[in-house]
Design goal:
The protein is α/β, with parallel strands linked by helices. Helix content is 43%, strand content 16%. Helix 1 crosses helix 2, helix 1 runs antiparallel to helix 4 and helix 7 crosses helix 8. The protein starts with 17 loop residues before the first helix and ends in a 14-residue tail after the last helix.
Length: 236
């Protein structure tokens, strides 16, 4: 039986571009919603709108999967759900460890979307001995000193880091040394990892700063003079 560590999704070997891989979960989310409503087929235009992309890009993305749809009918929803799930490696169970069980880590542990999307939280880890044994989302928090044994026993290949920035690199080093090859990082810091280890960063503060930029720009546009050419003077 394939384990989470030994089996890897086929996207890279088949030459699917990273930009396409990043959009596959968007398509899968839209398709899953259609499937739950028992919608049998969907056009590229409808699916693209639901996923927030243009239809030409969607058709190009699906060409990498070998799925071209049927003219006048569209795409078979259930088949696309299976096809994309297979490409993303979601047709098997992926054990995950979450390290750092503060407010954010606890919220992630309680997120119900893991199980429904092919991920199983195998363990919750924290360096705070006072948290050891406390139940979070039905799982006991275990001390970080158990990390290596847990990764080995559960064949974990994906780690989620929700620690403070100062602890994130040390945790990363231990995860990698234990055999973890994919990391989702919520800590506000850049991680250094060796070749062969994938890191995805989720930085809420950066996303908020980008939104603040757009809000400031919109506010500046609203303060243009009546001729629409010269914006109001902004303070330095």
């Amino acid at each position: 039986m394939a384990t989470g560590r030994s089996h890897r999704p086929a996207t890279r070997s088949r030459g699917i571009p990273e930009a396409t891989v990043a959009r596959l979960p968007l398509y899968l989310r839209a398709l899953t919603a259609l499937s739950e409503r028992s919608v049998p087929t969907v056009s590229s235009e409808e699916l693209a709108a639901a996923a927030g992309v243009n239809s030409a890009k969607l058709r190009k993305d699906f060409s990498y999967l070998g799925s071209y749809g049927t003219r006048g009918v569209g795409y078979d929803v259930e088949y696309l759900v299976y096809q994309i799930s297979r490409e993303l490696g979601l047709t098997q169970d992926w054990p995950v460890v979450i390290v750092g069980i503060g407010n954010l880590g606890a919220a992630l542990a309680n997120y119900g979307g893991f199980a429904s999307r092919g991920f199983r939280v195998a363990a919750l880890l924290d360096a705070d001995t006072a948290l050891a044994g406390r139940l979070v989302a039905g799982l006991p928090v275990r001390h970080i000193d158990e990390l290596e044994a847990i990764v080995d026993d559960n064949q974990v290949s994906i780690g989620v880091i929700a620690t403070p920035a100062g602890a994130a690199q040390e945790v990363t080093d231990r995860l990698v040394a234990a055999g973890v090859t994919s990391i989702l990082n919520f800590a506000p810091t850049v991680l250094s990892v060796p070749d062969g280890v994938d890191v995805r960063k989720v930085d809420l503060s950066i996303e908020l700063q980008i939104l603040a930029f757009h809000e400031q720009r919109k506010a500046g546009e609203g303060r243009q003079d009546p001729d629409g050419d010269v914006p109001a003077v902004m303070p330095a």
